[in-house]
Amino acid sequence: MRLPRPHRDDVLIAAAGLAGGLLLWSLGVHTKDDGRPLSGPWVTLGPLVVMAAMELLRRTRPQTALVVGTVAIVADQFTPGSIATALMFTDIVYAAVVYGTPAAARRIPYTTGMVTVAATIGFLVWLREPVALLLGLLVGLVSFGPAATGALVRNHRDAADAARLRAEQTALLAEMDRTQAVTAERARMARELHDMVANHLSAIAIHSTAALSLDEPATTRQALTVIRENSVAGLSEMRRLIGLLRDSSGDAEPAASPTLAGLDALIAKARTNGEAGGFRFVLEDARPEGGNEAPALPAPVELAAYRIVQESLTNALKHADPGEVAVRLAGAAEKAGKALTVTVTSPFGSRPGPRAPGSGAGLVGMRERVALLGGTFEAGPVEGPPGGPAKVWQVRAVLPVENDREPSA
Question: Which of 72, 141, 286, 321 lies 20 to 30 angstroms, CA to CA, from 380?
Answer without folding.
Answer: 286
